[in-house]
């Protein structure tokens, strides 16, 4: 038996069919919580985000992310320290600017993944540019 997976992408849009348009924000949150609880009884809830606050808030069983979600999260002020650390590590590894940019991106993905693992233990996967694999294995 397979268990359906429900992803928390654009949560307010997903739950809008279940909530009265004239409902107050408090009623919306209560309705959303009840709907989410119902969904959790019948499916696995997966967070599709790089925003740790939302992962903590909705308590999904798994999380997935990709470069565009990490980019969106990395623009949030609360995650600036992750970017700062990624840039610092990249600069300490290479003096070539292009290499530093690639390394900073890789470090950012890894550091976001590590943070997600602190919230949801287990495994984390990070989407990478497939072209990197082609370049790497081209020489074999």
Automatic annotation (TrEMBL):
<dbReference type="GO" id="GO:0004801">
    <property type="term" value="F:transaldolase activity"/>
</dbReference>
<dbReference type="InterPro" id="IPR001585">
    <property type="entry name" value="TAL/FSA"/>
</dbReference>
<dbReference type="Pfam" id="PF00923">
    <property type="entry name" value="TAL_FSA"/>
</dbReference>
<dbReference type="InterPro" id="IPR018225">
    <property type="entry name" value="Transaldolase_AS"/>
</dbReference>
<dbReference type="GO" id="GO:0005975">
    <property type="term" value="P:carbohydrate metabolic process"/>
</dbReference>
<dbReference type="GO" id="GO:0009052">
    <property type="term" value="P:pentose-phosphate shunt, non-oxidative branch"/>
</dbReference>
<protein>
    <submittedName>
        <fullName>Putative transaldolase</fullName>
    </submittedName>
</protein>
<keyword id="KW-0704">Schiff base</keyword>
<dbReference type="InterPro" id="IPR013785">
    <property type="entry name" value="Aldolase_TIM"/>
</dbReference>
């Amino acid at each position: 038996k397979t268990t359906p997976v429900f992803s928390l992408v654009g949560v307010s849009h997903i739950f809008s069919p279940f909530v009265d348009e004239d409902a107050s924000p408090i009623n919306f949150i209560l309705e959303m919580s009840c709907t989410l609880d119902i969904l959790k009884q019948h499916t696995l809830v997966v967070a599709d985000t790089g925003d740790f606050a939302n992962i903590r808030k909705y308590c999904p069983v798994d999380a997935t992310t990709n470069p565009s979600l990490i980019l969106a999260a990395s623009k949030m002020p609360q995650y600036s320290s992750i970017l700062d650390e990624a840039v610092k590590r990249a600069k300490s590894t290479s003096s070539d600017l292009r290499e530093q940019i690639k390394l900073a991106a890789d470090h950012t993905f890894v550091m976001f993944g590590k943070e997600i693992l602190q919230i949801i233990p287990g495994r984390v996967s990070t989407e990478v540019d497939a072209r990197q694999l082609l370049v790497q294995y081209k020489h074999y």
